[in-house]
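During the reporting period, our protein records have gained a structure token line. One record among many is quoted in full directly below:
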Amino acid sequence: MGFEYKLTFDDSRWYTENQNRLRADLRALPTFKAELPGNELRFKADEVPNSWSYDLRVFLRPQQIDIEVSSSTRSFFEDLRRFIERLRRHTPVHFVDDDGASVPLQ
């Protein structure tokens, strides 16, 4: 069973102006595997054997970043967390679940 999250931005202008930089930062993460049409980036931890081609998908939407976690692996616990922590150094960002509740990064 998967989980869905969102990264929302207090400053939507900052997000819009920096979307290409964020895409490059995501592509530089160790578990990045592919970018597909629709601004979809796929990640997979190679040490976890399964038949899926990804365990984490990130979608760069016009106003937010949507995150779909199909398997809780290093892609989620290390790479995505590192990305969010780095992002928070530049702008206020909120990691929320599909009900809109803030989720702490642990």
The chain has three helices and six strands. The mean pLDDT is 91.
